[in-house]
Hints:
Blueprint: H1 2-17, E1 25-26, E2 29-30, E3 37-39, E4 43-50, H2 59-83, E5 92-94, E6 97-99, E7 115-121, E8 127-134, H3 135-140
Antiparallel strand pairs: 1-2, 3-4, 4-8, 5-6, 7-8
Amino acid sequence: MKKWTVLLVCLCGLCACTHTLKSAVKEGKIAPSFNDTLFTEDYLWVRGLGAANPAHSTDSQRRIMSREAAIAHAYQRATEVLYGTQLESHVQVVDALSVGSTIDSSASGIIQQMELVSTEYLEDGGCTVIMRLSRQKLKQAGLDPEGKK
């Protein structure tokens, strides 16, 4: 009887965890496929990815900056989902490499209330984060897209 109870508790715990974004890291690298956004009954989940700058001299520098880039990317994803996207791009390509690309990030309003749920580092110093925003807070701000789950 105890074995069945333990099995049932484990199964319930597993089911409760299936309503979040799964890891985008496989064997220290970006997984071949994953979701960037997910609406559940309680949250908007978003993933952000950040690359490490090879010019930084220490692992700590690369990890810190790739984490900040991943958080900024997650904010961008959430903004795209909630407000839509208007994209203007300026990229200079030299010898088949993009150069001079910058990202300016600022978050305001409801987006600032996102929670950082998990951080994973890649073997090259890159980073992936998962952040979430309560649907209750979205509804209070008048931004919850109806019918999305």
